[in-house]
Automatic annotation (TrEMBL):
The UniProt record lists the keyword Methyltransferase: no
UniProt-recorded name of the protein: CDP-alcohol phosphatidyltransferase family protein
Superkingdom assignment: Bacteria
Pfam families: CDP-OH_P_transf
Family: Belongs to the CDP-alcohol phosphatidyltransferase class-I family.
Species classification: Bacteria, Pseudomonadati, Pseudomonadota, Alphaproteobacteria, Rhodobacterales
Signal peptide start and end residues: none
GO BP annotation list: phospholipid biosynthetic process
GO MF annotation, one: phosphotransferase activity, for other substituted phosphate groups
Native source species: Paracoccus litorisediminis
Length: 179
């Protein structure tokens, strides 16, 4: 952080993101004792998702916007999605395809190691933000045991398709931008 963070103080924005990291870490504990999903997980994850909109607002309001803060936020979202997808997998709510919701960001990062053009900066995107919220909201809903019939499968596949579309759109943009 000392090398990449351009401001002299941490600020409330990064404290909020750190709180979201702590909530994500707290959600690992139930997995370790074999208690996946449920209302507790959904509640903590719901608060973390709600706070996701607060950190950016605080950064803009306090003049602490930075590439570091944006990346910190993205990686926190990715970690939350991974932990939530593991909860859904362990609870056997839907099949292993739910891991796509938790691993797609990491697969993109690994692909960037092989194809450097994937690491180029992307322009800001409301689509990317909306799909991230949809992805995490779907994973939160999948924690709830009372979803009827095929609703969990439809919810999971809908979120996977939206996430694939978003990543495909970014990959296509990056591919065209390198020429």
């Amino acid at each position: 952080m000392r090398r990449a963070y351009p401001h002299a103080r941490l600020g409330g924005c990064n404290v909020v993101t750190l709180m979201r990291v702590a909530m994500t870490c707290a959600l690992v504990a139930p997995l370790l004792i074999g208690k996946a999903g449920g209302a507790y997980v959904a509640l903590i994850a719901g608060v973390a998702l709600a706070l996701d909109g607060v950190d950016g607002w605080l950064a803009r309001r306090s003049g602490l916007v930075s590439n570091f803060g944006a990346r910190f936020d993205i990686e926190t979202d990715a970690a939350l999605a991974l932990v939530l997808s593991l909860h859904v997998l362990v609870a056997e709510t839907v099949g292993p395809m739910v891991l796509l919701l938790g691993l797609m960001r990491y697969a993109f990062v690994v692909a960037g190691l092989f194809w450097g053009w994937l690491t180029a900066p992307l322009p800001p995107s409301l689509r990317r933000k909306a799909v991230c919220v949809l992805q995490i909201a779907a994973l939160i809903l999948l924690q709830l045991p009372f979803l009827p019939g095929t609703m969990p499968q439809l919810l999971a596949w809908g979120a996977v398709l939206a996430l694939f579309w978003s990543f495909a759109t970014d990959i296509l943009w990056l591919s065209r931008a390198r020429k």
